[in-house]
Amino acid sequence: MKGIRWRAPRRAPFTPSRFLLGLFTLGLMATAAAAASPAPTGPSTSPDAGAHALLGQMTQAEKFQLIRSAFGEPDPAHGLAKPAGALGSAGYVAGIPRLGIPAQQLSDAGLGVANPINVRPGDGATSLPAGLATAASWDPQVAYAGGAMIGNEAWRKGFNVLLAGGMDLQRDPRNGRNFEYAGEDPLLAGTMVGAAVRGIQDQHVLATVKHFALNDQETARNTIDARIGEQAMRESDLLAFELAIERGKPGSVMCSYNKVNGDWACENRFLLEQVLKHDWAFPGYVMSDWGAVHSAAKAANAGLDQESAAEAFDKEVYFGKPLEQAVARGEVSQARLDDMVERILRSMFAVGLMDHPPQPGPIDRQAHLAVAQHTLEAGAVLLRNQDALLPLASDLKSVAVIGGHADKGVMAGGGSSMVTPYGGNAVPGLEPATWPGPVTFDPSAPLAAIQALAGGAKVDFASGDDVAAAAALAAHAQVAVVFVTQWAAESFDAADLRLPGNQDALVDAVARANPHTVVVLETNSPVAMPWLDRVGAVLQAWYPGSAGGVAIANLLFGKVDPSGRLPITWPRALDQLPRPQLPGATAGTSAATSVDYGIEGADVGYRWFQRTHREPLFPFGFGLSYTRFAHGEPVVEMHDGRPRARVTVRNTGKRDGADVVQIYVQVPGSPVRRLAGFGKVVLAPGQSREVSVELEPRLLAGFDTATQRWVIHAGRYAVYAGRSAADLSAPRYVQLPQRRL
Ligand code: BGC
Question: What is the pTM of this model?
Answer without folding.
Answer: 0.94
